[in-house]
Fold this sequence. Notes:
With 450 residues, the chain is an alpha/beta fold. The protein has three domains: 11-100, 3-Layer(aba) Sandwich (Rossmann fold), CATH 3.40.50.720; 104-305, UDP-N-acetylmuramoyl-L-alanine:D-glutamate ligase; 316-449, Mur ligase, C-terminal domain (Protein-Tyrosine Phosphatase, Chain A). Helices cover 34% and strands 21% of the residues. It has helices at 18-30, 47-54, 87-94, 102-109, 123-136, 151-157, 170-173, 194-197, 200-208, 227-234, 278-293, 298-305, 335-342, 382-391, 403-413, 435-449, and strands spanning 11-15, 34-39, 58-61, 75-78, 99-100, 114-118, 141-145, 163-167, 183-186, 219-223, 239-244, 253-256, 259-262, 265-269, 316-321, 324-328, 349-353, 372-377, 396-399, 419-422. The chain has a nine-stranded mixed β-sheet with strand order 7-8-6-9-10-11-12-13-14, sandwiched between helices. The longest helix has 16 residues, at 278-293. The N and C termini lie far apart (49 Å).
Amino acid sequence: MKQVNRYLHKKILVLGLAKSGVSAASLLHKLGAFVTVNDYKPLSENPEAQGLLQQGITVICGSHPIDLLDEGFELIVKNPGIPYYNPMIEGAFERGIPVITEVELAYQISEAPFIAITGTNGKTTTTTLIYEMMLAGGKKPLIAGNIGTVASEVAQLATKENTIVIELSSFQLMGIDEFKPKMAILTNLYDAHLDYHGTRDEYINAKALITKNQTAEDYFIHNNDQEKVIAVGEGSNAELIPFSPYHELDHGAYSKDGWLVFNGEKIMEVKDIKLPGAHNLENILSAVAASKLSGVSNEAIIEVLTTFTGVKHRLQYVGEVSGRTFYNDSKATNILATQNALAAFREPIILLAGGLDRGNEFDELVPSFKGVKGIVTFGQTAEKIEKAAMEAGIKMIQRVDNVEKAVPAAFDMSEAKDVILLSPACASWDQYKTFEVRGDIFIDAVHKLK
């Protein structure tokens, strides 16, 4: 960890806790700052705040009082989930108080370089693949951010021999100042989080911040099949490294004649990759690019790609029962993610889908249902998804109460060589606290079948 004196005796407000806020507050306290923590949850229900109080940190809980901003704070470190239209953030800007997120602190203290990954889809899979490839190649990676441990905790332990592989959201990137990754990856861009950002352009601009501080000594690895992503690259000062599963490129990572290729060098045959799905080929190519630029051998890359079956809840292979294969794609909380999952299989599919009703219809799924022989629905959107299934001509449609009941229903509907796929196309919050809980229930139900 670098010796940082910039926060010594500075008065700093940490707004919002969760893991990142706790880590930021503790780190700033170690760096000699006068830290105040403000969290909306009452102190009696807030063990994180109670722990910080025991460290000698000032804690204010139960509300976000605007007049707190008049106490002379020189910096605010905010929880990424707090939007910029929050009155406390707007009040900070009115008073000229700078606002950052915890990842900026991690960068400032880290001795290790960063490989940073963002995008609408594929961030977690790409981050995990890079970590696994570098680990297999003996490169001493550490994993951080939205996947793994909070960035500022990892950065305190990192040395110059490490590389921090970090998944970043648009929320986190809006709070950076000096953050400069050695490699930045932009997987893709689709409409998302518009309730937070307001407009598509604001969302794209937030994602583009991942490369704003990069120089010609750095790399910007980007999807070469999306104009919006290419445009971000055109504004970057880094060396551009494109990837494409569909087109041969002059340089970068691409697929040609059934092979993965990087800068003209064949790495391995696509058919030997364990991870299913055309969309995952994008993730794989970006990971290959980052790993090759990090000096990872082809042998290490091949070792990972011939064994890696997916991140939990993201098109995760669960097992086989009586000739049926089960996949957990509970992270598919939108239509696009389910379309990608359905496109990953050539076998007949029994689809488990449904969840929180956000007011949208599911007509966009109809063309993707061509490989679906049966569907089991649940949750608030069950009727809407059934309507799309009937429009697609699916004959076997059954509604059940929940995911646990959906698994045996799908099994009864299926036969040997079918894929039984949980890919809900909806958020989980109508029935389950998180998509992880929903996925774990699916996994448990599959194991009960065994």
